[in-house]
TrEMBL record:
Keyword entries, A-Z: ATP-binding, Nucleotide-binding, Transport
Domain ABC transporter: 20-258
Organism of provenance: Flavobacterium degerlachei
InterPro entries assigned: AAA+_ATPase, ABC_transporter-like_ATP-bd, ABC_transporter-like_CS, P-loop_NTPase
Protein name (database record): Phospholipid/cholesterol/gamma-HCH transport system ATP-binding protein
Superkingdom assignment: Bacteria
Length: 258
C-alpha cells in the first residue's frame, strides 16, 4: 500500500501551478520489462525533490522522459504548463534550453578543454553573444563552482569531483530554470560528495531553480531535499520530508535511511 504523506507546502507555492507535472507515466522496454507503471509527480517552482528507489526502479528513466531523451509509452508530462509528449523536435529543443541535465558520468567532451566545453554549449544556444561576452560567461560560471583555475585543463586532468563541477558549470551556463540531476555524487568520496550537495543547495538558493535529484546518497538527500519521493514497482510508493520518511511505519521505506 502506498504511504503518501501529506507534506506541508508553503501556501504561496501550493497556489501556483506545478512547474513539472507528471500524470500516469508508463514506460516499458519490451513486452516483458515494464519499468514505469503509472508515475504521478508534481514539482513546484523553487522546490528540490529527491527521488529514491532501488536500482532499476525507473528513477533515471523518469527524468529522461521529462526532456524527451526517452520516449514515454503513455501518460502526461507538462513542463512550464506545456505538454512535452505532444511536441515536435523544434518545440522540444526550445524547452530543453530552459532545463539543465546533469548526467551521471558528467558527459564532458574529452577532446576539448574546460573552456571549449563551456563555449561550445553557450555558442550553440546563445548565438547572439560575441567572443568577449562568451568569455565573461565562462569565467563567471567557473567561479560559481569554484574552478576558475581549471579553464585551460582537459577533462583527463580533472578529478572526479572536478569533472562533476565542470559538468554542472556547463549546465548552469545556459541559466536553466529547471535542473535534473542524475546521481550527482556517485563515485565521489564523502567530502567531495558533500561539496557537490552543498553546491546544489547554493544553486537553488541563488537562482531559485527547480530541481529533481536522483540519488542513492542519503547524505545528499538529507541536505538537498525539500521533499523526497520513493519509487517502488513502477509507481511512487511514499513521499514526505526526510524526517517523516525516516520515521515511517513502512519497514521498506525506513530501510533507505539505515
Amino acid at each position: 500500500m502506498q504511504e503518501l504523506i501529506n507534506l506541508e507546502i508553503p501556501v504561496a507555492q501550493h497556489l501556483q501551478a506545478p512547474i513539472i507535472e507528471i500524470k500516469g507515466l508508463f514506460k516499458a522496454f519490451g513486452k516483458n520489462n515494464p519499468i514505469l507503471k503509472g508515475v504521478n509527480l508534481s514539482v513546484h517552482k523553487g522546490e528540490d525533490v529527491v527521488v529514491l528507489g532501488k536500482s532499476g526502479s525507473g528513477k533515471s528513466i523518469t527524468i529522461k522522459c521529462i526532456v524527451g531523451l526517452v520516449q514515454a509509452d503513455k501518460g502526461e508530462i507538462k513542463v512550464f504548463g506545456q505538454e512535452i509528449l505532444d511536441m515536435n523536435t523544434g518545440q522540444l529543443n526550445e524547452i530543453r534550453v530552459r532545463i539543465g541535465f546533469l548526467f551521471q558520468n558528467s558527459a564532458l567532451y574529452d577532446s576539448m578543454t574546460v573552456r571549449q566545453n563551456l563555449a561550445f554549449t553557450l555558442q550553440r544556444h546563445a548565438k547572439d553573444l560575441n567572443d568577449e561576452e562568451v568569455e565573461k560567461e565562462i569565467i563567471e560560471v567557473l567561479e560559481s563552482v569554484g574552478l576558475a583555475e581549471a579553464i585551460h585543463k582537459m577533462p583527463s586532468e580533472l578529478s572526479g569531483g572536478m569533472r562533476k563541477r565542470i559538468a554542472l558549470a556547463r549546465t548552469l551556463i545556459l541559466k536553466p530554470e529547471i535542473i535534473l540531476y542524475d546521481e550527482p555524487t556517485t563515485g565521489l568520496d564523502t567530502i567531495t560528495s558533500r561539496e557537490i550537495s552543498e553546491l546544489i543547495l547554493n544553486i537553488k538558493k541563488k537562482n531559485n531553480t527547480t530541481s529533481i535529484i536522483i540519488t542513492h546518497d542519503m547524505a545528499c538527500a538529507k541536505l538537498t531535499a525539500d521533499r523526497i519521493v520513493i519509487l517502488k514497482d513502477g509507481v511512487i510508493h511514499a513521499e514526505g520530508s526526510y524526517t517523516e520518511l525516516e520515521n515511517s511505519k513502512d519497514e521498506w521505506v525506513r530501510s533507505f535511511f539505515i
